[in-house]
Amino acid sequence: MQINDNIHGFTVTRMTPAPNSGSELIEMKHDKTGARLIWLKNDGENKLFSVAFRTPPKDDTGIFHILEHSVLGGSKKYPVKEPFLELMKGTMNTFLNAMTYPDKTVFPVSSRNDTDFMNLTKVYLDAVFDPAIYYNPNIFYQEGWHIEMRSKSDKPVYKGVVFNEMKGAMSSIYSRIETELMNVLFPDTCYRFESGGLPEHITDLTYEQFIEGHKTYYHPSNSYIFLDGPIDIAPVLELIDGEYLSRFDKRDTDTSIPFQKTIAPTVKKCYYEISQDEDDKNHTYLVTGKVLGSWEEREKVTAASILAEALTGSNDAPLKRAILDTGLCLDASLEVSDGVLQPFGFLCISNTDEESCAKLKGTVRNTAAKLCKDGIDRELLRAAINRLEFKFRAGKEPRGLTRNTDALSAWLYGGDPLCYLELGEVYDSLRSKLDTDYFEKLLHEWLIDENGMAEVYMLPSRTYGEEQKAAEEKRLADVMSSLACEEIDVIIEQNKKLDEWQKSVDTPEQLATMPHLALSEVSEDPLAFETHETNCNGVTVLRHPASDKGIAAVNLYFSLADCTEQELSAAAAISELYGSLPTSKSSAAEIQRRVTGLLGSISYNVNVFSAKGVKDKCKPFLSIKARFLEKNTAEALSLISEIITDTQFNDNAAICELLKQADDDFKHHIMSNGHSYSMNRVRASLSAESAVTELVSGYEGYKRLHSALNAPEKLIDYIKSLSKRVVCSARLTASITDGGDVSIEPLISALPVGTASACEEMSFTLDIPERQGVIIPSGISYTAMAFPDNSADTAVRNVLFRALSLEYLWNEVRVKGGAYGTGAMMTPAREQAFYSYRDPSPKSTIETFRKAADFTDEYCSNDPDITQYIISSIAKDEPLYSDGNKSIKADGFWFRGISYEERKDIKKNMLKVTPKQLAEAAEKLRNCGNICVFGNEAAMQGLDLTVDTLA
Description:
By secondary structure, the chain is of the alpha+beta class. It has 35 helices and 28 strands. The protein is globular. The termini are far apart.
């Protein structure tokens, strides 16, 4: 291939190395339509196709979000109800999704398998260029919105997948903050609108506007096609041109995005919902932000992220420390939002009061001014540069997707797609600027110069949720009162047609149009997780080979098997404190600087494992996981050792400050991820492993921490004694992922020998209500149900749960019920639960969960072809792993005693599962277990729940 070559309608315009990603960039342009295409050619294991469109919104109706959902709901060549769902069922995809951003919509798919990659690409191309939305408005009504009303006596309600999704999204304070801030910073451009849609405006979108949006924006002339990996390029280009682009002519549609002129200093006050029982004191959020510049200023944007890390990356970072020392707030952080035409930065101060904001702003200005005058600590900046560069170079899977997003950060605006793919030279340049006042000038511009500054106040309200609900009901009542009888009849008829369509099944002829893999194309061999068990100074050390050259990962596991319930809670609290407190040798600020400069990442958790088939015992560990450059091994291991053996737990005020921040983060995570917490809650009765997991990281963990902070001295005493007892070589199991040269011996030698745990496993139970409701301030709910009988064959249950997720729950809970997400899950301990996500109807969802066995009986009675569910369940178990995640997975197999041979037997058995086996296994699901619902008070009605309120 050479520049100016013409390959299936595409002309090669550029070929250049992309060394930071180990690729060659090949850029092309489609002759007939002007469609842009780049291929990052490399020898990775994965292949990615993506097509993106520039989609700047003109209002808050969420048109492009609804289009993103809807085009995957059937197309000309693939006339099934939901091709996206069929691809989930029958492919070995490593990524399958679509995303709506503030100014673009992206449709990426990837697979390791060549045939699978082409199949995915074919379906996505047909979806975006020939969707069924033109002749089937039911897709719009289901995915976007409709008035649900089946007779004139029914109370009308708004329903729709995106409508409910955005209700959930707008219940998150942090989603609201960014939405409101962009509204102020960009009053004259598309960024003032919420591209996902605001629930109060989604219902303004008409089907006709929706169709016109697709006609205007989903055109090859407005497309950005991205390929990544070891792809056979000729057949891919032949497909793209021959079957799609060649049918179009070039069109000049103005999708450009103007630059926002600098705004005058602006203040906006907004409200968000808190629960009825919450004190509104110390619940205000102050956000100050401004546009940092243009996408072209990549060095400046990167430098802003470095400033954010250096100045607020820890409690002892200089700006954050000054803000916290006022005693007027709980937390503060600088953030940078990029990937848009004009990246912006903001400072968020949380849990304060409105009357304290003036003093806090003064503290910010004075501290920033002092830093500008005296200079920012160069070692702090150098450490932040190292941390960000490590994250850039290490990447995360699927890496092709990350590269796609990075390329679009410049490419979408007419820039070089390599701009944000090749940042290595930017980090080198910023290091050279440490000898100048570059960072001080940027800090002055960001936090001191008020020109262009926006302030957003998020104020707490106990009535906001009810007011939103009442406003929605009034809007709908006004709409209904304006309709003639004949128009109401049309709505009823629309619902009838929607119901009929949702209940309909694809014909064999329609299903036959979908490309699928054959079982013969799926290897019987599971993914290999190479583990070599070694010994160092009496400590078991697991070694794993690395694929990322020059990067090592170390995982440390200290047994907690002989700990009490209070000590387990203390271990969870320790995880929030390590690395943020001083040691006897170093201040907290010095520890944080070294962590940032030496370690690409480090995390502290409580991990729990159980042997296969064992329910009444488990193995809990205090776990430390770190990644770093191999060249920094000695310093990195020394630092880790110092943190875990010498952290000083003497400053109660500092400890309480950190734990209160953790408590607040915990609370907001629960509100945004209620499905995870509801599943943890219902599984807690099934095994010791799940009970401990719920205690340390579930809703029970939150309750214990929140309560302990009322009188924290007892918890702190447990922390002090536990840290001395458990961090020792006698309790340690370690793992290393590297090129083979890293020795962990210096770290092991630095640990006290200590005393081994009195037992290898522990028994543990929690007393949790069988039917639990947790009231959260949210317009939407999350539901889970456990199934205690897991005696059916593992291979069969893997396939059964995938089939139930995609054949049953998807149709009943998502399609008909309007929830954004749902599924059937098995944990690594092979425990079972169903869940729903952003669900408007938890009561009907629970009834659906109960009928899973009945559905499976009926479904399997016709001896269906379940090949697609077998393939899909295997794909779900074989995602792409980074070295760090691969080592964690391998460690888990080792602790559970699951061998490669056992995994191979399970996979071989999965390939042979029959419908009869599915029906037999589903009988176990008639024994329904605990129920948990996270949602508002109305969601709990009629469910006979023991109700708690998120404090």
